[in-house]
Amino acid sequence: MSALSRFLDSDFVYSFRRSPVAVVSAVVVLIIVLCAVFAPLVSPHDPFDLASISLLDSLKPPVFLPDGDWSFPLGSDDQGRDVFSSILYGTRISMIVAALAIGFSLVVGITVGLVAGYAGGAVDAVLMRIVDVQLTFPAILIALLVDGVVRAVLPPAAQDALQLDVIVFAIGISRWPQFARTVRGSTMIERGRDYVMAARVIGISSPRIMVSHILPNVLGPVLVIATLNLGLAVLDEATLSFLGVGLPPTQPSLGTLIRFGNNFLFSGEWWITIFPGLTLAAIVLSINLLGDWLRDALNPRLR
Amino acid sequence: MSSRIVLEANDVARHFDVSRPALQRLLAGEKKRILRAVDGVSFQIVAGETLSLVGESGCGKSTMARLAVGLYAPTQGSITFEGQAMHAALADASLRRKMNMIFQDPYASLNPRWRVRDIVAEPIKAFKLLSSRKDIEDRVGQLLTQVGLSAHDGEKFPHEFSGGQRQRISIARALSSEPEFLVCDEPTSALDVSVQAQILNLMRDLQERLGLTYLFISHNLAVVRHMSDDLGVMYLGRIVEQGPAEEIFRTPRHPYTRLLLDAIPDISAVGRQRTPVGGEVPSPISPPSGCTFHPRCALANDRCKAERPLETKVGDVAVACHAVQEGRAA
Fold it and tell me: Residue B274 has what pLDDT?
């Protein structure tokens, strides 16, 4: 039996196909991710190409309203940019930021968790108190704080170039404690197992035991939390951008789009902000539902 | 056979601090709680032979096993391996590879995420015994065949095997560093009786063929009798009687050894009145004074309560018991 057919035959796939919520949200996530990845191919306009933007096209309503036409399916903004295209590019940026931030969080959280759980004692106590302190603050507050501090420290020239890195760092650093906690707990269980003893008997070094023996055995629950946090990180980025401390209009994410569209909400051009908002809601909701399902599917006790 | 001593333990003790965290302890005004898992144990293991340690749960057998491969450092006393102090032996890869361990629970001792071939190859790679992939692959196949599995089994994961098969994998891993000395920590107690015999026979067979030396830990006296040259009976962190296994089984001297041997079911004596093993092992955190066995011993007197008995030779057997020394135990 090949690896693929064995996978398709597994409990995991079976429980996936039995759950309509999981299937629908997986499809939504897949469509959005594909659209984001292939944004330059899918979108009818290039919102960054100044030559193709005309003020004459500004504030066009979506296609289903009178005066709307198919060249701007979801309408256009005050600069004449196509809202649909902006959303595709914005989603792309939002997803990149969220993925990088969670990746960063995972690296920091897993490292801290492994070290704390494996070393135990004073090292564990110190690291876990740091985690405790950070967990008392809401993640978004930490992100806001880190973002502000980093911006204040960086020279103005570097600020523009590093805007994406700064926000990735800010969101990433605000979310690592959860991963550290989870990994630490599982590591403490695994380190007492005989297979770790067997490695120690033949003199395998602690870092190697952590990475090659313990890590593969603690990764499952962490990946579930990472999925759930991916949705939250998209939201974090949108919040920061909405507040104006996130990404600049030259790199508009969904949050930036919502913030700009917000200015036109009361003058009747609701589509500029509502459509990016709906997209954001769809992304976060489906990632969360998928993560929920993953958590249940990987937990044998809930079967 | 030469009587070269592979492992020697000299008055070894290992204490664990099991007190509550410092602040809580201070607030409650408690003293430190020290668990004396192993408390002054001495023995020697001769090359090519098997020394077994038996005793009830919590008597320090497993701690002694871990001390013998250097997983724990002794709190007191010394262990020498091949004439070298343990810490020096651990630092020297060419010596360290000569000892390895087989664990009790075959479900916990194999990393569930690793393929069997990687599990068995780990010591080979760790000690750089072979370098080319092909050589390692061949050696792993050979090891798996040696323990009664097939070379193809290397591709599988541990969960695809039964308990007995897993223990064979565990043995193959232990053998892959080409050791001379193996510590076996209750290697069969997690297995079905029918499988136990297979594993034990495999281990004896390997001992004969490869000239292995075993430190064999068990609570099962029948298993011990089958395996041992020498026997040490442990009670609460100490060895109460040690010597040639046959001699001890024939004429047990220490009251505790007698109690244990009495508890073995005997098919030729069905309906025989048996003395049940009375009482429980006291806590090693606050062991009884004097001879730690005195609360359960029928022969105990005031001296036993006050004074710790030292090992005295009776023939080939060393016994730590006042009653035996005084001739009260006839």
Answer: 65
Contacts of residue A120, defined as CB under 8 A and 6 or more positions apart, other chains included, come to A188
Across the interface, of B101, B108, B114, the residue whose CB is closest to A201 is B101
- Strands B230-235, B84-85: pairing is unpaired
Q: Which residue has the tokens 């594909």?
A: A34
For residue A303, give the 3-state DSSP assignment. Answer: coil
ipTM of the complex model: 0.87
Say if residue B2's pLDDT is above 60. no
CA distance A301 to chain B (A): 19
- Asked if B88 has any chain A CB less than 8 Å from its own CB, the reply is no
Quick check: B103 and A200 CB within 8 A?
A: no
* Nearest-angstrom CA–CA distance, B47 and B209: 14
Interface of B with A in 145-174 (CB under 8 A): 170, 173
Domain boundaries, chain B: 5-251, 252-264+288-330
One CATH from 3.40.50.970, 3.40.50.300, 3.40.50.12780, 3.30.160.340 for B5-251:
3.40.50.300
Mean pLDDT of A271-281: 89
Helix (H/G/I), strand (E/B), else coil: B176: coil
Interface test with A, best of B105, B111, B185, B186 (most A CBs within 10 A): B111
Contacts of A213 (CB under 8 A, 6+ apart): A190, A195, A196, A199, A204, B111
Scanning B112-131 for CB atoms below 8 A from A yields 112-114, 122-123, 126-127
* Dihedral angle, C-alpha A116, A121, A126, A128, nearest 10 °: 50
pLDDT tens digits along A153-193: 888 887 777 888 888 999 999 999 999 999 999 999 999 99
Percent of chain A whose predicted confidence (pLDDT) is above 70: 97
Domains in chain A, CATH or no CATH each: 11-49+81-302 (1.10.3720.10)
Instruction: Give the whole-angstrom CA distance, residue B273 versus residue B330.
Output: 20
CB contact (8 A) between residue B173 and residue A198:
yes
